[in-house]
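All the exercises in this workshop are built on plain-text protein records. An example says more than a description, so a record of this kind follows:
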Amino acid sequence: GSIHAGGFFVRDVAAGSDFVHLGGTATQQGSNIVFQGSDSTLGLQLTATFAPTGEAIQVDASLKDTSGSDRAVSLYFALPVASSFFPFASAAVCIFSSKPGAVSPLI
C-alpha cells in the first residue's frame, strides 16, 4: 500500500477499520480550494473547502455516508509541517467541532 504524509484520512470505528487515505481531486474556485474525495469500500464521500482567512486557513468539510448503515466514523486531516518552520508543533493542534466555525486550541 501507499504511504501518505498528509491529507484526509477516515476510520470506521464501529467496523474496526484501519485509517484510510481519501484520494481525490482539488480544484480552485476563486480564492478557495475545493477537495472532493471518496472511498467506495467504506462508502464515504468527502467535500472540503479550504478558504484563506487572515493568517489562517479555514476548512469546512462534509462527510457523506453512501452505505445507508449506522456508523461511527472519524475524519482526520494531516498537514505535514517541517519542524524548522514551526518549532512548537503543539501550538498548531486544534480540536475541531462538527459545528461550523467552532474551533478550540488544544494547549
Summary: The chain has no helices and nine strands. The two ends are 34 Å apart (CA to CA). The chain has a mean pLDDT of 79. The beta strands are 7-12, 20-21, 24-29, 32-39, 44-53, 56-65, 73-78, 94-96, 103-105.
